[in-house]
Amino acid sequence: SMPSEMLLKIFSYLDAVSLLSVGCVNKRFYELANDNGIWMKLYSGSSQPKWTVWKMKSKQTETVSLGCAALHDKKPGYWKKEYILKQTSAFKTRVMRLVKLLDPYTGLPCKNKEAMKVSGLSWIIVLKEKNGKEHLIEKPNLSFKDTSVTILWYGTDWPCLDVLSTLKLFGVTPLLPDQSRPPNKNGPRRFSLIAEYHLANLTESSVAVGADELVQLFSLSPGLLVGIWKEKNEIAFVMASLHYNQLLERSILGSATVQYAPPPNTPLLDDIDPEYGLHDYSLHLDLHGRSCMYLCGSFKGLFCRKGDIENGYLRLTVVSLKDNRKHLPVIGTLGICWETDVFKGNVKDCFVMDLTLLDETGKPFWCFSAPVYMELSSKASGLYDYMGHIYTADYVDSEGKVCVEFVWLEETKEYITVSLVLYISTKKVNSWYGTNY
């Protein structure tokens, strides 16, 4: 029963976040909360870049005189949209500025954690049933590594796997972040779609990574691990591995329905070097089990001879069987740790592989973070230094393949990495360098 004029007067004292929230009460409040006069005042009073202050002062009279025209000529909600666009643009610029400084060790932004904290970034998954009903799962456990972040969700009230159709992974940030105070969990938020996975026939169509007494793990590309209870066909937990390369862009710059598409690399043509695109690669490789690190290695000067280009792949030999100087020990027993409210476990013989391959300029060329499982090979070790069973672990995606071989030493109870070979798609190389192999 309160007159609209009085409500508008009250709304005029609210900040932007409160104004957006009160607009969700009902249709009348929504229409009043879209008032151009209130939002234009917020827009004009929001912070401006220092270099535009003198322009604003010199044109202050002009701005005031145009105020009434700007209000009457625009549709309701126009200045609300302009304010939100202005704030989100400034926010994205501030966050992206933090990740410009690169780590010479990995070639990745060295202030990722700081940028995530400033942005208020978090991650959620949305489970969608076949009838269209959605379940939003928040409050994950995070584990940060040198080149990736591992995210674990679990709960007791998740729907049965049989009724689920898709799983969506989102990056979530406050719609109007305020650096002076922590993000309001109940305030308006912005969703950025990172990946969408289809769960129909999950156990039949997906790659089985491993199992322990309680759960069985299934891998979904890219970088998602789903744990299914053995006793019943229900999800126990979901684990996502996200590589730092373009992590913030994908988590912030996309929309709720469309994934962020990074701009294509601009090739720097080199007509002098006949083997341009075949040499001076650098590799940083981590193997971990979410909470513990098993192997961390960096390799420089990787190259491929033209004779090693076969079946549409460039071969980069990182660790060879014959050169035992580069053989690397694996620290601890390989396995992926998981947990829920009640149970904990460790699925042996599988791990998360973080790979960062840099080109000759130090720019990330091929990066991923994904679960990988290890299998016993049928061949026995022919190495004099290592007598034991050989295990293999392979990874494949559209850009390349990774093949790793380990030897198990029974005497010392440890694995030794005796072979590591990368196969890079010639399509990827040709597109990146502007070459033709």
Automatic annotation (TrEMBL):
Residues 1-42 form the F-box domain. One of its GO terms (cellular component) is SCF ubiquitin ligase complex. Pfam families: F-box-like. Gene3D superfamilies: 1.20.1280.50. InterPro entries: F-box-like_dom_sf, F-box_dom. This is FBX15 protein. It comes from Pteruthius melanotis. The gene is Fbxo15.
